[in-house]
Protein: ComF family protein
Amino acid sequence: MKDCWQGAVKISRALWYEEVQVCTFCGEVGDLVCPTCSTNYLHPELGRCRGCGKLILKEKTCCLDCGAGRGPQHLDQVTAWGHYSGALREFIQKIKFEAHPRRIMKIARPFADWAISQLPAVDGVVAVPMHASRLAERGFNQAEVLASAIHWELGLPIIEGVERIKPTPSQILLSRRDRLHNLKDAFLVREPRFFSGRSVWIVDDVTTTGATFEAVAEVLRSSGVQEIYGLCLAAGLEIKLVPLGN
Ligand SMILES: [Zn+2]
Ligand SMILES: [Zn+2]
Structure:
């Protein structure tokens, strides 16, 4: 009964008193991301594979795949804010499939803080583009909303001019090799002059094998981009963890 009452208080606070800061993921009053959710989903105590962004043990610099040369080749570094699981995964899926792009603004500050603490400052951000047919279906590109969040929080310009010219089916069940094949010739830089000699962060919501980052990075590299970094909300995890209860 007590738990039920506390839950009701938590929800009514979140609904009626917007000035009360609540955790984006669990509704706990306090921080934008409470310590329990930070431990369970963001794992600041873990390292990120420099090659593909996967969460790894702090003492390592890259995952087994990237260490064996099976990771992206055109990126200087990739980082992910958290692990694609639990409430962070639900948060991302809700944004995409229930069309709640505004929810991204809730986490804009901590996401931007994470990005600038992990990656070098750059000339601008590039959102992973969505094919026109997918955009027409969904109505927005979540990677663009994320890039806007980074722009608002850090003042980094958004650089446009990369297009997705090939509609690609869902990548979820594909291996890294098949994903790369699927993404072959999928992206095009319309205005190479906007990119030549620049340094950029490519922004996306989720990365698993790094194949999408790699495909975008490849066309950026051939357009003369000097430094390319990948930034996303969530990535996979190389080790097994036991979550804390709320
Ligand atoms: Zn929480
Ligand atoms: Zn890796």
About this structure: The chain has ten helices and eight strands. The mean pLDDT is 90. The longest strand covers residues 199-207.
